[in-house]
UniProtKB/TrEMBL annotation:
Keywords: Aminotransferase, Mitochondrion, Pyridoxal phosphate, Transferase, Transit peptide. Homotetramer. The keyword Mitochondrion applies. This is Alanine--glyoxylate aminotransferase 2, mitochondrial. GO terms for biological process: glyoxylate catabolic process; L-alanine catabolic process, by transamination. It catalyses: 2-oxobutanoate + L-alanine = (2S)-2-aminobutanoate + pyruvate; L-ornithine + pyruvate = 5-amino-2-oxopentanoate + L-alanine; (2S)-2-aminobutanoate + glyoxylate = 2-oxobutanoate + glycine; N(omega)-methyl-L-arginine + pyruvate = 5-(3-methylguanidino)-2-oxopentanoate + L-alanine. Its cofactor is pyridoxal 5'-phosphate.
């Protein structure tokens, strides 16, 4: 802690009042330096996709390290070409050209530049409550005040109202593509329709009409489910007409799959597929490398050719080690059936959390899909008043002491983020539910 306070960035927060020093990991489990085992429900911030130190991925990394660590991609080497071909085979339509980077922020940074180069329009659009990175370029695209410095940034970027059926002005009991719907909000929508989605779409249309020069929108960024923002899901018929509207005004649509990609949502490999859309650009990171620093931007040949007007290069992007790891992750997802596991165990988990919600009024909302789950804590369920930070912290610390690691997110830090490695089992889920129940009981005493 002395080194951390004196030699590391003071902006680096530490989870828990009594921090955990992690020493070892295997699949869904972590161990601290004293040998205590924890079930990891946060996966290194939704990053460990197939499991900590997954044997197949570890073996691929070791094999590549003994052969070739690094060479510039200006030379040819097999790993990057094999991996690129395997990755784009997972994507629909004309999404065939890959730019490899090292992080999600780098990927989103590049995607924004790419969109502006292609459309010739500087203006871009994102949603309030979105997180797309914290680089100076992206701080304007991110729309969470807790992640913003008092510094000029985000020139040409505009935010529209977040399409949130729980905290937004519109939302009902059948809005979300989830086993769990908003409690306490009625819904008059006909089957296959969603009035909330239409209202939020009107807000997006207004933003384009009033804020964009000549009503031209160069780019629209959206997560399939907002991650850092607290696992927020949009109404079912919002994103598709939003994409259509942006394209009708000259823009390209960018899906941020940094947290939702690679089968985590269960029903589909990519989160955007759950909205029945095909974006023009896809950004991905985190789970792509199971914790190895690897990210990518995938786009169409037509958009990619506009990046040839000047030299563009990433020294480490797609290096031999990263490519070998990324390729092994794709193989592990396929061989281990992690997408199907996300669907089955995730649905089981959400249903168990709904049962827990019936026991404790402090649980205001349960939401999510697959193993992308959020549990929002409130002091007043009807008013949706955020639970005070000290009570959230007490529960959170209690869970950790009982061997369960959970993330936090949302503007108020009151949403428990449950995004474990996709190898988690139903037995693990039962353990997690027991721990949470005990933590909620302790908090209410």
């Amino acid at each position: 802690m002395k080194v951390r306070s004196e030699n590391l960035t003071p902006a680096l927060l530490t989870f828990y009042k009594k921090p955990v020093m992690i020493n070892q990991g295997h699949m869904q489990w972590l161990w601290d330096i004293n040998g205590k085992r924890y079930l990891d429900l946060f996966a290194g911030i939704v990053t460990v996709s197939v499991g900590h130190c997954h044997p197949k991925v570890t073996k691929a990394a070791e094999k590549q390290m003994r052969k070739l660590w690094h060479t510039t991609n200006i030379y040819l080497h097999p790993a990057i070409h094999d991996y690129a071909e395997k990755l784009v085979a997972k994507l629909p339509g004309d999404l065939k050209v890959v730019y490899f980077t090292n992080s999600g922020s780098e990927a989103n940074d590049l995607a924004l530049l790419m969109a502006r180069m292609y459309t010739g329009t500087f203006e871009a659009l994102s949603l309030r409550n979105a997180y797309h990175g914290a680089s100076p370029y992206l701080m304007g695209l991110t729309a969470l005040s807790t992640w913003k410095y008092n510094s000029p940034t985000g020139l040409g970027i505009h935010q529209t109202m977040n399409a949130d059926p729980y905290r937004g002005p519109w939302g009902g009991a059948r809005c979300r593509d989830s086993p769990s719907q908003v409690v306490g909000r009625s819904c008059d929508c006909a089957e296959g329709q969603c009035q909330a989605g239409e209202h939020y779409l009107d807000q997006l249309k207004d933003t384009v009409a009033f804020s964009m020069p000549n009503k031209r929108c160069g780019a629209f960024f959206a997560e399939s489910i907002q991650g850092v923002g607290g696992t927020v899901q949009f109404p079912k018929n919002f994103l598709k007409p939003a994409f259509e509207h942006v394209r009708s005004h000259g823009g390209v649509c960018i899906s941020d799959e940094v947290q939702t990609g690679f089968g985590r949502l269960g029903t589909h490999f990519w989160g955007f597929e759950t909205h029945d859309v095909v974006p023009d650009i896809v950004t991905m990171a985190k789970g792509i490398g199971n914790g190895f620093p690897l990210a990518a931007v995938v786009t169409t040949p037509d958009i990619a050719k506009h990046m040839g007007t000047a030299l563009h290069f990433n020294t480490y992007g797609g290096n031999p080690m990263a490519s070998a790891v990324g390729s092994a992750v794709l193989d592990a997802i396929e061989e281990d059936g992690t997408q199907q596991n996300s669907l089955e165990v995730g649905t089981y988990f959400i249903n168990k959390l709904r049962e827990l919600q019936n026991e404790f009024d402090v649980i205001g909302d349960v939401r999510g899909k697959g193993l992308m789950i959020g549990l929002e804590l409130v002091s007043d369920r009807e008013k949706r008043t955020p639970l005070p930070a000290d009570r959230v912290g007490k529960m959170w610390e209690d869970m950790k002491d009982m061997g369960l690691l959970v993330g936090k997110g949302g503007l108020y830090g009151t949403t428990l983020r449950i995004k474990p490695p996709m190898c988690i089992t139903k037995e693990d889920t039962d353990f997690a539910i027991d721990v949470m129940r005990k933590a909620f009981q302790n908090s209410c005493q």
